Automatic annotation (TrEMBL), chains A, B:
<comment type="similarity">
    <text>Belongs to the formate--tetrahydrofolate ligase family.</text>
</comment>
<protein>
    <recommendedName>
        <fullName>Formate--tetrahydrofolate ligase</fullName>
        <ecNumber>6.3.4.3</ecNumber>
    </recommendedName>
</protein>
<keyword id="KW-0436">Ligase</keyword>
<dbReference type="InterPro" id="IPR020628">
    <property type="entry name" value="Formate_THF_ligase_CS"/>
</dbReference>
<comment type="pathway">
    <text>One-carbon metabolism; tetrahydrofolate interconversion.</text>
</comment>
<dbReference type="GO" id="GO:0005524">
    <property type="term" value="F:ATP binding"/>
</dbReference>
<dbReference type="InterPro" id="IPR027417">
    <property type="entry name" value="P-loop_NTPase"/>
</dbReference>
<keyword id="KW-0067">ATP-binding</keyword>
<dbReference type="GO" id="GO:0035999">
    <property type="term" value="P:tetrahydrofolate interconversion"/>
</dbReference>
<dbReference type="GO" id="GO:0004329">
    <property type="term" value="F:formate-tetrahydrofolate ligase activity"/>
</dbReference>
<dbReference type="Pfam" id="PF01268">
    <property type="entry name" value="FTHFS"/>
</dbReference>
<keyword id="KW-0554">One-carbon metabolism</keyword>
<dbReference type="InterPro" id="IPR000559">
    <property type="entry name" value="Formate_THF_ligase"/>
</dbReference>
<feature type="binding site">
    <location>
        <begin position="65"/>
        <end position="72"/>
    </location>
    <ligand>
        <name>ATP</name>
    </ligand>
</feature>
<keyword id="KW-0547">Nucleotide-binding</keyword>
Length: 556, 556
């Protein structure tokens, strides 16, 4: 069996200019980055805004399990199948972070015959977006420390600086550091830490900005810390939003690449799905919607986190809401939700499928709360049995949700045709009537409570004493009109990662709130959140290499 | 008077494919980065190696003073003038670091009508080379700390790790840090620090590598620290040279841009000129030599440091030595070397010119030691008088060195014609007979002594007790066959920055040696060397901005 990189390197790519033509993009609309990558020009991004929008399909999933669900692969395969059916289709996907690539994963651009290419570039520096975000983030840090050093005119409390530095690497030794040591000319000693770049608020800002002006406004609104009187200090107080926007001026343009099948894909932005909203950029999704008849996009984690954030945080910044939601499930994962252990998944167990279906059913109901048609994608694995598939299809039929088996990993576009047809039918038969879960005017407390009770199925919310005082403080600062971004485990509807299936009668404790006033949301932390991964004992980097003529090796 | 960025933005650029055609490069030889930047393909870089080489002109300078000498501007103007005379000409220049751009300088790509374009891109992310180097450097740091955390199989002494992290920013607070704090899962606490990216040994490695294989070999040879028994630990012991080379696989390809006049310019690599050798990449210079009849390149700082390193460190990696050396001087700077203070430079003073000429004369003699023809470029400033110019021209004539006035900042290519003609004549009249100052087999002590006595004109060298024990240790490790890279003040031939003109009878003290076994040289430190600049009270970043349609503002 071929590895992902072997399949990728055996694919003959089309020049990106030819791919662009499929959706009416001309040579002058592109800034080429080599023959197979391009950024869209500002002129084109602006020009298409007046065009009508095509249909938008959001791909999400059940709560992920160690068995894996293959959401990106299904997204890519679905888009390819829509292309194969003659629909003018585009993908809008997140771009991967280099840190995990060097650590465990070795690559993240789909899999098998459903990949975006050139996977080596996408997994390494791509068009430099991550580096621009890293640079903007760390330029802000340097400017903050320089402000302290040069007299601290703004009166920033050095103990209450919340802006951290970042690197696009898995580097646990940088999680907690002390900077400014050695001598008075080396600045003010203080505690600091590094997150991975995708956890930077600037990533979230870039992904929610609708144009350069909006980007600059959001950058200006970032809170970097507090004064001794506890009043917030914004980037606009430092007057450096212009410089940060300048550093990001190219990174904000969506990147065009292609799938193995030749579907045009905008791969752009990739914020964390816990302390941020976990979707590719608004500009990529919006531009794809204006260019294509069908746009397939994806949200991070399961539908309780990723799709909720897509619909409550990202969608208000888009020209239109999704027309349909695809929920990806695998029989293996459903059997885990149904009570089986990881080493029991290879044997047929229709009862476990039935029990695990509860998890999928709750996600289906949740998406229907938003007024959206739902389609289930059953991503096939080698040990799935016909009896298990039949049980799952019957359960879906009972609640009137179309379901289609998918084999795009092995078969490419052909393996996604049933799903593509089901999606087209769902959209044509039932127009979406998007309703947001909460309104901006709801208090932060109400917003969180609605998410916990209506989406997670929890009983109630407990706010720590810290969170309670923050609720008052944030209302005073005028931050209570912002949406909420929940930072919760992806493995369960509850805040207990081992509570699979559909947990009942649980409370969610909000430990702390974090203002991301530039991105434009308030993060609600339900537990410890890791914002800087570490490397494993045998990092993927040990297998990586490059040949004398520049061919990448060891990206899986 | 127009600012550099105004002149740049008022210039209509040619598509880079048209610029490439001037030196026989075709569309397929390029990886485009937007319409005005490209990287050369590996295939083309390899293919031209068998072509004969054109003439190489090295531009260097007298010891710099606060009055400024304009070396990059003269290099660009000289190349443009050679183009204007019908010579097939290329430039090979360093690429600027973002840190100083955000700090004081606001930009570094020539000036006036002698600039490389697009200056905004070159001064910001360009084609991502700096970011790739930053990433490779910091990936190595993360892999070292991970090795410590995962059991430290190699027995690295955590107190003797010499590999530091980098950022491409001026960030004094990162000069000395403690990493690994907070918890056992956050790694081993230890002292560390950040240099600016251009000070990374990986920058020097990239700039001296002759191909990807050589790059990987040099990366493998980097010393990252020592074991408890003081034996060195190399990157090859960690087995990550393949991953680092993979991260650098595109960064190693030279970048093609254009001057205002339309001369093709390879702008690639930019190592520090103190703790590294301060020249653009070997691959850029070599490729230009194969493509053009005349290649103009530049070395950092004054000729005592930059040209010495070009000739003793870089040249052995090139297919041929320079055919001529241009030494840039200004009357203002000569008057400072002649004893005037900065506020006295606007008045005519031919005696100060005469006195200051001694500095220029010593550099001329030094370059002649290498067997190379020399031409003096007098870079004109507004307050220069005819009498002063006449004195300088007469002094040059007395020692039989051609001199030409240059006004390329104000006049572009036309302002460099006299210099271009003088350079062509010098090359045609006197074939270069390059002799290196020392041989690889000289001991490190002898190499340093030759540089100090023959180039600086010093009396002798004093080695600190630390340096003395290092000399023995380095010989034991087999590092004594490497060339020496002097880290000395650029402002004086001596190690005292305020000793202008031609200091006599001075000793140079070597405080410490630093192994850069990957780059392939041993750094000899004569004093404290700053490898991480700080930001000023009013950083250039405060003036930077970007318009709604993506136009950069505030890069001077």
């Amino acid at each position: 069996m071929k590895s992902d990189i072997e399949i990728a390197q055996n694919t003959e790519l089309s020049p990106i200019t030819e791919i662009a033509e499929k959706v009416g993009l001309k040579f002058d609309d592109l800034d080429l980055y080599g023959p197979y990558k391009a950024k869209l020009s500002f002129d084109k991004i602006k020009a298409v805004k007046s065009q009508k929008t095509g249909k938008l399909v959001l791909v999400t999933a059940i709560n992920p399990t160690p068995a894996g669900e293959g959401k990106s692969t299904v997204s890519i395969g679905l888009a390819d199948a829509l292309s194969k059916l003659g629909k003018k289709t585009m993908l809008a996907l997140r771009e991967p972070s280099l840190g995990p690539v060097m650590g465990i994963k070795g690559g993240a651009a789909g899999g098998g015959y459903a990949q975006v290419l050139p996977m080596e570039d996408i997994n390494l520096h791509f068009t430099g977006d991550m580096h621009a975000i890293t640079t903007a983030n760390n330029a802000l840090s340097a400017l903050i420390d320089n402000h302290l050093q040069q007299g601290n005119e703004l009166g920033i409390d050095q103990r209450r600086i919340i802006w951290k530095r970042v690197v696009d690497l898995n580097d646990r030794a940088l999680r907690q550091v002390i900077v400014g040591l050695g001598s008075p000319v080396n600045g003010i000693p203080r505690e600091d830490g590094f997150d991975i770049t995708v956890a930077s608020e600037i990533m979230a800002v870039l992904c929610l900005a609708t144009d350069l002006k909006d980007l600059k406004k959001r950058l200006a609104n970032i809170v970097i810390g507090y004064r001794h009187d506890r009043s917030p200090v914004y980037v606009r107080d430092l007057k450096v939003e212009g410089a940060l926007a300048l550093i990001l001026k190219d990174a904000v343009k969506p990147n065009l690449v292609q799938t193995i099948y030749g579907t045009p894909a905008l791969v752009h932005g990739g914020p964390f799905a816990n302390i941020a909203h976990g979707c590719n950029s608004v500009l990529a999704t919006e531009t794809a919607m204006h260019l294509a008849d069908y746009t397939v996009t994806e949200a991070g984690f399961g539908a309780d986190l990723g799709a909720e954030k897509f619909l409550d945080i990202k969608t208000p910044n888009l020209p239109a809401a999704p027309d349909a939601v695809v929920i990806v499930a695998t029989l293996r994962a459903l059997k885990m939700h149904g009570g089986l252990a990881k080493d029991e998944l290879d044997k047929e167990d229709t009862d476990a499928v039935k029990a695990g279906f509860a998890n999928l059913k709750r996600h289906i109901e949740n998406m229907r709360q938003y007024g959206l048609p739902v389609v289930v994608a059953i991503n096939e694995f080698i040990n799935d049995t016909a009896a298990e598939v039949a049980v799952l299809e019957k359960l879906c039929a009972e609640i009137n949700v179309p379901a289609a088996a998918v084999s795009v990993w092995a078969d490419g576009a052909a393996g996604g045709l049933a799903l593509a047809k089901a999606v087209i039918s769902a959209i044509e038969e039932q127009p979406a009537e998007y309703k947001r879960l909460y309104s901006d005017d709801d208090s932060l407390e109400d917003k969180i409570t609605k998410i916990v009770t209506k989406i997670y199925g929890g009983k109630s919310v407990v706010f720590s004493s810290k969170a309670q005082s923050q609720l008052k403080q944030f209302a005073r600062f005028g931050w209570d009109k912002l949406p909420v971004c929940m930072a919760k485990t992806q493995y369960s509807f509850s805040d207990n990662p081992s509570s699979l299936g559909v947990p009942k009668d649980f409370e969610i404790t909000i430990r702390e709130l974090v203002p991301k006033t530039g991105a434009g949301f308030i993060v609600a932390l339900t537990g410890d959140v890791m914002t800087m991964p570490g490397l494993p004992k045998q990092p993927a980097a040990l297998n990586m290499d490059v040949t004398e003529d520049g061919k990448a090796l060891g990206l899986f």
